[in-house]
Specification:
- The chain is of the alpha/beta class.
- The protein has two domains: 99 residues, Gyrase A, domain 2, CATH 3.30.1360.120; 165 residues, Rossmann fold (3-Layer(aba) Sandwich), CATH 3.40.50.
- The chain has eleven helices and twelve strands.
- The strands form two sheets. It has a six-stranded mixed sheet, with helices on one face.
- The longest helix has 16 residues.
- The chain is elongated and about 80 Å long.
């Protein structure tokens, strides 16, 4: 019992899957009767099998069926989970893999059977779905300046006033160069300050949105300020998190060191390069070092 997703991953109006199994196995999977089935039928999965609306089932060849489901990413993800729970084996569709490749590295590695089989699950996911990378830290640590430098345009307003960034902003970026470039989404977040009754409602909402992103993104990059002690909220978050899985950097190293440095100030990698582009390159290098090579050996 095997299946493939024929439609490209991501947003769409239709999710198309191919099923390779006997009529009895298809009947059991969806709780339907295929005794009088010939080529095409609008079917309704039975309760307890798949909680979906009607879908179109086509018989392509002997023991090969196609299901056309109304919906895109969410429906496809639910189908993958359902099929895995029923012990159906996924056979990646070459067309789906190529169409979903979002970067030169993804196209080069996913389209080759030899490479695809050697990729770790983490790298496979990273190449199929661009990772979301978020910049977190206290106010005025230079997150927005780094974000603007990374995306090569002034997407975020930068100022010395606390709370300038009141919403998270995201933009597509490429990590690496040439054939080794991988797509990602970079997110700039509001500075994490401890909110109280004196803080404006907009600031409270901005901090709450930033906190909500912490467990949603694929990579957390903490940007600390060399000249300023950590806010109470920042200290609480870093104590509660497994920061070994995050990346810590200390920015604005040209300013005097704060009077009360913490263990995280000492652990963080310094961004003391004169150009912001160089600082972005340092963070990018750290990400690739954390991820490791996509293949056990270089495959060209």
């Amino acid at each position: 019992m095997k299946y493939s997703q024929l439609s490209a991953p991501g947003a769409s109006a239709l999710a198309i899957f191919e099923f390779r199994g006997t009529a009895e196995e298809i009947s059991s999977l969806f709780g339907i009767n295929l005794d009088d089935f010939h080529e095409l039928r609008l079917v309704q999965p039975q309760t307890g099998h798949l909680d979906f609306d009607q879908f179109l089932l086509l018989k392509v060849a002997e023991d090969i069926y196609e299901g056309h489901f109304h919906g895109g990413y969410g429906v496809a993800r639910a189908l993958h989970e359902f099929l895995a729970a029923q012990d159906w084996e996924e056979v990646p569709s070459q067309l789906s893999i190529i169409s979903s490749a979002s970067s030169p590295l993804a196209l080069r590695l996913l389209a080759k059977d030899k490479c695809y089989g050697q990729l770790t699950a983490e790298w496979r996911q990273r190449l199929l779905t661009p990772p979301r990378i978020a910049l977190f830290g206290p106010p005025n640590a230079g997150k927005s300046t780094l974000f603007n430098a990374w995306v090569s345009e002034n997407r975020v307003t930068v100022s010395e006033h606390l709370g300038t960034t009141r919403d998270f902003v995201e933009a597509p970026i490429m990590l690496g160069v040439g054939d080794d470039a991988i797509a990602a989404t970079l997110i700039d977040t509001a500075g994490l300050l401890l909110v109280d009754d004196q803080v404006q409602v907009n600031d409270v909402a901005a901090v709450e949105m930033s906190l909500g992103l912490l467990d949603e993104v694929d990579e957390c990059i903490w940007v600390l300020d060399h000249s300023t002690q950590l806010t109470p909220l920042m200290s609480e978050l870093l104590l509660a998190r497994d920061t070994d899985n995050d990346l810590l950097f200390i920015n604005r190293c040209d300013l005097p060191r704060c009077d009360t440095p913490t263990q995280w100030h000492s652990q963080a990698q310094r961004l003391d390069m004169p150009e912001h582009k160089q600082r972005c390159a340092t963070i990018e290098k750290a990400l690739f070092e954390k991820w490791g090579a996509p293949l056990p050996e270089q495959v060209s």
